[in-house]
Design a protein that fits this description.
globular, 6-stranded mixed beta sheet, 25% strand
């Protein structure tokens, strides 16, 4: 073989390699086809499962872990999460070993609630069926930056998407603000917003719109989680104003959620008050203003803070519009996670709050938790 021929073959091989690399990258990058023909090819209905705050056990300052080391905390709810096309929640704290990170707050302070879950507990989230977890909350930075990195790595290895932590240590601003998952031919996009300086901020309208624009360009279905509002049983009702907690701006949630829908989101849900709040149908899209606590082992199990709903909704992925849903009633049990609640207390609470706080609500909530559109 002549040397010139050899060089030609090498160049052709290199070009072929480059071409293949670009093709692979395009396949691995989510990109929703927004043409009318593509939308018609999507399934007519998908189911999204949503839950509130999750803190599966705490190793700081000493082990306060659930019974049987937490192996059964999601037993009652896992069938619901696993049956859904995609399941989402809020990870209220970090997943990291005790030696990773130092407490950020003064342990003597009455507000020194800091949450760190054992690394092995990430398998409980994976096995329960969670696909996306929000990290934009006031506990993701409890132990500074190292545990955030550990948490994100653990979730990645478990195949769970995450978004929302704005780690102050990342000077290059390489934060994870969006996450994607393909399921059943549908691409789901997820983002998470909070009100702390270490969260993707729901207080920055321009930033929120830019994130949703990005999601909309890549996903068929856009899901937004938020952590905001005041806290405690006194925060059951949804005000028509900006909320504050211990002097911190926790957002005007009506304005925020409506902005999300107006910017292209399909579904918006949140937590943060540690109690449930009203639900709303806005321009045909579903909003849950707080799903409260879900699995906060050792804390938040009494009275209204112990109500732990899992909500499933059916939407049309072609336009993101709500079709029907259900509030599945659970109540937290001491160090045991959410357990089925035959009394349906959380259904009654959400129905009452929706009637009180959402004028002319288009949602009808039945005794069994079924959610339909008012005819």
């Amino acid at each position: 073989m002549k040397f010139s021929h050899y060089i030609t073959i090498c160049i052709l091989a290199l070009l072929a390699s480059c071409s293949k690399s670009k093709t692979d990258a395009a396949v691995n990058t989510p990109q929703a086809d927004t043409t009318e023909e593509a939308k018609k090819a999507l399934p007519q209905q998908v189911t999204i499962a949503m839950a509130g705050d999750i803190m599966m056990g705490n190793t700081w300052p000493y082990n306060r872990l659930p019974v049987n080391d937490g192996k059964n905390i999601f037993d009652d709810v896992a069938p619901i999460l696993q049956k859904a096309d995609v399941a989402c929640g809020n990870l209220e704290g970090v997943i990291a070993p005790p030696e990773v990170g130092a407490p950020r707050k003064n342990p003597a302070s009455k507000l020194a609630f800091m949450f760190k879950m054992p690394p092995r507990y990430v398998d409980y989230l994976k096995n329960a069926g969670f696909d996306f977890l929000g990290l934009s909350n006031n506990h993701i930075y409890d132990f500074f930056s190292a545990p955030i990195t550990y948490t994100e790595k653990a979730l990645t290895e478990a195949g769970i998407g995450f978004a929302g932590a704005k780690d102050p240590a990342k000077k290059d601003k390489s934060h994870t603000f969006t996450a994607y998952k393909e399921s059943g031919g549908v691409i789901y996009g997820f983002a998470s917003f909070g009100t702390e300086h270490y969260n993707a901020s729901l207080l920055d309208a321009a930033f929120v719109k830019s994130i949703i624009k990005e999601l909309r360009s890549k996903a068929d279905v856009v899901i937004i989680y938020f952590h905001g509002g005041s806290e405690g049983s006194v925060a059951r009702h949804l005000p028509k104003a900006t909320e504050f907690f211990h002097g911190c701006n926790r957002g005007n949630l009506r304005e925020f959620t409506h902005l999300c829908i107006d910017s292209g989101a399909d579904v918006v849900f949140g937590s943060g008050p540690h109690v449930v709040r009203a639900m709303e149908l806005y321009k045909g899209h579903f909003i849950a203003y707080s799903l409260g606590n879900f699995c906060t082992c050792g804390m938040g199990i009494a009275g209204l803070t112990g109500l732990a709903p899992c909500v499933t909704i059916d939407i049309n992925p072609g336009d993101g519009k709500f079709k029907a849903g259900k509030i599945h009633a659970f109540r937290q049990q001491p160090m045991a996670g959410p357990k089925a609640d035959k009394s349906g207390a959380v259904i009654k609470e959400i129905r009452e709050l929706t009637k009180a706080d959402i004028s002319n609500s288009a949602l009808v909530i039945a005794d069994d938790g079924t959610i339909n559109i008012k005819k």
